[in-house]
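ok new one. same drill as before - structure tokens go in, u give me an amino acid for every spot. 107 of them this time. try not to just spam alanines like last time pls lmao
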């Protein structure tokens, strides 16, 4: 959760990597899931998202979602049902990605 020119903004950034023998390598993939934003336990916005990452061509790996500030309070972002599928000649899904929860005081 960030502030963009005075406007509240949720940003979700994704990157897929695999570990080789010594180093991690970024790969082209699709990342999708669902998110909800709540204030003091009351849901303000829910939606799905999808990001295609391409480290070789510098694609933007960020989804930006604006929301209306509902005054001071505790804002929580939950990202769930996260799935990754590698692109290319032989696309394959990866194992489950844990849900993510971030809480901060805002507005």
């Amino acid at each position: 959760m960030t502030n963009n020119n005075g406007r509240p903004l949720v940003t979700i950034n994704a990157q897929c990597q695999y570990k080789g023998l010594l180093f991690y390598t970024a790969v082209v993939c699709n990342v999708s899931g669902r998110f909800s934003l709540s204030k003091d336990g009351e849901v303000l916005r829910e939606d799905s998202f999808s990001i295609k990452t391409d480290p070789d061509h510098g694609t933007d790996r960020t989804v930006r979602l604006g929301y209306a500030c509902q005054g001071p309070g505790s804002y929580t972002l939950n990202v769930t049902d996260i799935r990754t599928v590698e692109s290319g000649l032989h696309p394959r899904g990866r194992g489950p990605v844990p849900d993510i929860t971030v809480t901060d005081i805002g507005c």
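The two ends are 11 Å apart (CA to CA). and btw The longest strand covers residues 73-86.
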